[in-house]
Amino acid sequence: MKWLIVLISVVMVLALVLLLYVVFQKAEYKNMNTLNPTIFKNNTVHVTGFTGSQELANWRITNDGVMGGKSQGRIIQTQDSVLFTGEVSLANNGGFTSTFRPITPLAANQETITINAQGDGHVYQLRLNTIVDGYRLSYKHEFSTSLDNRQKITFKLSDFKASFRGRDITNAPELKSEDIVELGFLLNLTKLNIQKPQPFSLSIFNLTLT
To answer: Rounded to the nearest 5 degrees, what angle is found at the Cα of 58, between the Cα atoms of 55 and 64?
Structure first.
């Protein structure tokens, strides 16, 4: 009889934890949709605000410290862009850093996204996040940068690959522009044989969906 009471208690605790997690995810999704106005012009969506006085507050950083790593990324506001910069280290099983920004819902049926950025020679990932059944699902696409060379790079939304907690999801829903609630950038150097922390620098001027 005692073991049955313990089992019921464990099940109730797990159910409560799951409920709180779902509530948190939905609350976070609601908050995403109340931030950062997006300008619609004709059939082109210009995501703006990268130079606003409150822009830094819109970005969040996720370093590999969640895995015990020591990488450090940060966002700096410049006159005409936001600068994602810092150091990536493989120490303590680390090797990545990322930054994300929530956006308001975009127009439907947009097919491409163009980033205007200046990098440092590293390969980054552009991440577009959606919410599916209360969970954040990330769609990713790699892009190469060249040192101190400002670039405009265009991606098809249909080419983005879905990922959840580091695992590729082959049966994920098709990425639609109206479902995107957050955009971000990730630098992952875990596959490189580096002996010391690597500095990085990615300036983001604007993004355009068409």
So the answer is: 120
Q: What is the pLDDT of residues 129-140, one digit of tens each?
A: 999 888 899 999
Measured over the CA atoms of residue 98, residue 104, residue 109 and residue 115, the dihedral's sign is: negative
Closest CA to 206 of 105, 78, 34: 78
- Closest listed residue to residue 50, CA positions, set 114, 103, 96, 86: 103
For residue range 124-177, list pLDDT tens digits in order: 999 999 998 888 999 999 999 999 899 999 999 999 999 988 789 999 999 999
Read off the tokens for 121.
Answer: 């020679």
Apex 45 CA angle, 40 and 51, nearest 5: 90
Q: Please list the residues that pair with 99 across neighbouring strands.
A: 61, 185
Would you give the DSSP letter of residue 107?
P
Residues 100, 146 contacting (CB under 8 angstroms): no
Per-residue pLDDT band for 39 (boundaries 50, 70, 90) equals very low
Find where tokens 């313990």 sit: 6
List domains and CATH numbers for the chain: 33-209 (2.60.120.260)
| Rounded Cα gap, residues 132 and 207, in angstroms | 24
- Per residue in 61-84, pLDDT (tens digit) is 999 998 899 999 999 999 899 999
Cα-Cα-Cα-Cα torsion 184, 162, 149, 206, nearest 10 degrees, comes to -40
More confident residue, 41 or 9: 9
Tokens (6 digits) for 131: 């919410």
